[in-house]
Amino acid sequence: MRYGQVSVAHFSHPQHRLRLEHHDTPFRCDGCHEPGIGARFRCPHPGCDHDIHRQCALPLSPPPPPLRHPFYPRCAFAFLPRAPGAPGSRYCNACGRGVAGCAYHCRACGFDLHPCCAALPHALDAGGGVRLRLHPDSRGSSGGGAACHRCGHRGRSWSYRSQCGSFSLHVACVMDMLVESWGGVVGRHKGAGAGGGYRVPAIRGAAKSAHGSSREYSYWGIRKKKGNKLKRCCEIAGFAGQAVISAVLGDPTAFIAGVIGSFIAH
Q1: Would you state the pLDDT for residue 115?
Q2: Start and end of every DC1 domain (predicted)?
C-alpha cells in the first residue's frame, strides 16, 4: 500500500474517507483508543482530527472473517466496534489494559484482544543479531526464562523474549511505560502528525527496574559495568526495547524503532 494513495471508509468517521499516511508523531487511535505511531489512516480534511491504526481500519459490513490466534486455538475472535458489557468491564488478554473501543472478542470464552495486540508479530528482528519471540507469558515452558526487565516479574502478560533467554519484556510493561511517559500528551497534541512538530517524548523510567542501581547507569534495567558479557546484554536490551515498543504501537518497522530509540534517555 502506498501512503497518500489508499483510503478507506470507517464506521468511526462516516462523514469522510480516511487516507493512509505516515508520521513520526504519536497519536491516540479513534478506533481502539490506544496509542500509536507511524502509519495510520487519517482524515485529510482540514479541521478533522481523526486517526486510526491500520489494524483497526476494518469494515463492519461485510464483517471480516473471525480471527484465529495460535495462543488461543479454540477461539474465534470477531471484530466488534466495541466489546460487549459495561464500560470498564473488559480487558485485553494480551496487555491487560482496558478495552474501550473496537476489539476482537471471542463469544465462547469471553477473551478480548486490542487489534494491535492481536496483530503483534510472533518474531521480531531487533537488530544487532537479536531475535525476539512472542510468548503468552514470560515463564517459558519449564517455568524458567528471564524476568521482565521492566518490572522484574514473570507471567504478567504476553512478553517478548530473546532467543538467548537473557531478555524479556512484558507487553503490559511497554504500555505502562508509554502511559507514564506521555501522560495524556497524545490526546492534547492530536494533530501533531499533520505537521505540528511534536515528537516522541523520552520514555521516563525506562532505566528503572528491580535490577537498577543508583550508582550504576542502567538501560532497560540492565546495569552497565565493565565486561564484554554485560555490555552485550545492555546492547540486547537497547535493541529489543526499541523493537518491542514500535511493535506494540502498531508499526514494527526499523525506522520507527530508531525514532523511538533516539528519544530514550541515554
Answers
A1: 95
A2: 11-57, 87-118
Instruction: Tell me the average pLDDT across 217-231.
Output: 45
Distance separating alpha carbons of residues 31 and 193, to the nearest angstrom = 17
Neighbour count for residue 134 (Cβ, 10 Å) = 19
Rounded CA gap, 76 and 109, in Å? 9
Residue 108 grid coordinates: 465462547
Range of weakest confidence among 97-106, 148-157, 173-182: 173-182
Percent of the chain with pLDDT over 70: 67
CB 51 within 8 A of CB 264: no
Q: Which DSSP helix (H) or strand (E) runs through 187? A: helix 185-188
Residue 167 in contact with residue 135, Cβ under 8 Å? Answer: no
What torsion, rounded to 10 degrees, do the Cα atoms 79, 251, 181, 199 define?
-130
Secondary structure of 151-183 as H, E, C letters: CCCCCCCCEEEECCCCCEEEHHHHHHHHHHHHC
The pLDDT of residue 260 is 53
Across the strands, what pairs with 133?
Answer: 123, 161
